[in-house]
Design a protein that fits this description.
Blueprint lengths: L6 H8 L9 H9 L13 E6 L4 H15 L4 E6 L4 H13 L6 E5 L5 H5 L7 H6 L2 H4 L4 H4 L2 E2 L2 E2 L1 E3 L7 E5 H7 L7 H13 L3 E3 L5 H16 L1 H8 L4 H4 L2 H16 L8 H9 L3 E5 L4 H7 L8 E5 L7 E2 L3 E4 L6 H14 L2 H11 L15 H12 L2 E2 L2 H4 L2 H16 L5 H13 L3
Helix pairs in contact: 3-16, 3-18, 9-10, 11-12, 11-14, 11-21, 14-22, 21-22
């Protein structure tokens, strides 16, 4: 879910001459003629799949997808790109626009591939989706809506990832001599005891998307669902500048004070601080569960999870989907169809999401093996206590502006919450 920029806008500007932008549709037409270039000396049903899932837990989950696809007689050629989505996406986009497309590529649910679709560079999966009855099985419906442009379906959702979680180290609080918090206020109150015990209260990695995601989570927990939607869905700058969001910025100020001393970059490094008891907690999406599972830790025993920070049990329904660039190789195109079907297969959905820590996009699968935290998420989803993810509600450019703001806010203690809120309201006022 992590770090956005309007890369096609960048490429249009980069290739402009004489002050005039290259017509993207003309560029797309030229590039489509080149996508028949061979992807290497691979067998016709070898399919390269690019993604940014490279942490231990993520790699274990990807292996389940590869195993399921290989079982169809095809071959998953793994194209993992180290780093976050912010690192991987420009590489993926440049390959697609440059005539060297992969067979399939991960993006987050939302608008990250919107211009690639509009440029005519991505496969229309409507026939596959219709044959497989995706509209009947994918829940919530907003996931498939995010794949739909001008009535056609362009991606296969694979999971539901929610940001709204506080992960706590039971061992850290035991060492500090305080009870494991039941909500955000108790967590903030426990911070001095954690610090006295030499424990960083809140682990936050240095990548911009992590700070922005923490703020979005605080907004749902403290300001509530309606305010969240007014800001990100309705783009209401007055609400963004108002007293409810001021409370959120106060909480964000507490969070940045508690995160001083994290000194890590990657999200999974921050999660590891919680796993090892060096940090009391982390605001992070449910993908963190994959790291706890890989470390052999048990939910409810070794760590505690608080959906909605223990304040508002609401989760977002963002996550990941796979898009399929246009290929003129007929065998590979058929393999793309097979992969799209395989990703939504019930067994694949269970095996992948249990390892990933996410929830399945199918509403008809059995997850008896789910741990306590996953069961909490499923129950919240069942109740309909959900919001759409900001990737679904904001353009990539608006997301990037938001991430830049909160990266600066968490790194620069001299930026006041009031100044940050003013800039935030300006971003929302011009958001698309």
């Amino acid at each position: 879910m992590r770090g956005n920029i309007d890369w096609l806008k960048f490429f249009r500007q980069r290739f402009s001459e004489g002050g005039e932008l290259m017509n993207i549709r003309l560029m797309a037409a030229a590039l489509c003629a080149s996508v028949a270039l061979p992807l290497g000396a691979a067998h016709a049903t070898d399919l390269e799949v690019t993604h940014w899932w490279t942490s231990g837990g993520e790699a274990a989950a990807v292996a389940e997808l590869a195993k399921a696809f290989d079982a169809t007689g095809n071959k998953w050629v793994d194209g993992a790109i180290a780093g976050s989505g912010g690192t991987a996406r420009p590489i993926m986009v440049s390959r697609i626009t440059g005539g060297d497309p992969m067979g399939a590529t991960q993006f987050n649910h939302g608008r990250q591939a919107e211009e690639l679709v509009q440029a005519g560079l991505m496969r229309d999966l409507t026939d596959v989706a219709t044959a497989e009855h995706w509209k009947d099985i994918i829940r919530p419906a907003s996931l498939l809506d995010s794949c739909t442009i001008d009535g056609k379906i362009y991606c296969a959702p694979v999971n539901i990832h929610s940001w709204q979680w506080l992960w706590l180290s039971n061992a850290a609080f035991k060492k500090a001599g305080v009870d494991v918090p039941k909500n955000w206020d108790e967590f903030v109150a426990a911070a001095p005891a954690l610090e006295k015990a030499g424990i960083v209260p809140l682990a936050v990695g240095g990548q911009p998307w992590q700070a922005a995601g923490a703020f979005d989570t605080l907004m749902v927990a403290i300001a509530g669902k309606d305010t969240f939607n007014k800001v990100f869905k309705d783009k209401d700058a007055d609400v963004a500048a108002g007293p409810e969001i001021a409370k959120v910025f106060k909480a964000a100020d507490d969070a940045r004070k508690m995160s001083k001393g994290s000194n890590v970059q990657d999200w999974n490094q921050a999660t590891n601080l919680v796993i090892t008891g060096k940090a009391g907690g982390q605001i992070m999406g449910d993908w963190a569960q994959g790291e706890f599972a890989l470390a052999g830790q048990k939910a409810g025993t070794d760590y505690t999870c608080l959906p909605g920070l223990g304040v508002n049990e609401i989760i977002s329904t963002g996550g990941d989907a796979f898009y399929f660039p246009l290929l003129k190789d007929e065998a590979k195109s058929k393999a793309q169809d097979v992969l799209a079907k395989t990703l939504l297969d019930p067994k694949t959905q269970v095996a992948f999401n249990l390892k990933k820590g996410s929830l399945p996009v199918r509403g008809d699968v059995d997850l008896e093996a789910a741990n306590d935290c996953m069961k909490k998420g499923l129950e919240i989803l069942k109740k309909g206590n959900i919001v759409e993810g900001t990737d679904q509600l904001l353009s990539a450019d608006s997301q990037k502006q938001k991430e830049d703001l909160f990266s600066e806010f968490f790194a620069n203690a001299s930026m006041t919450p009031e100044d940050a809120q003013k800039r935030f309201a300006e971003i929302i006022g011009s958001a698309d």
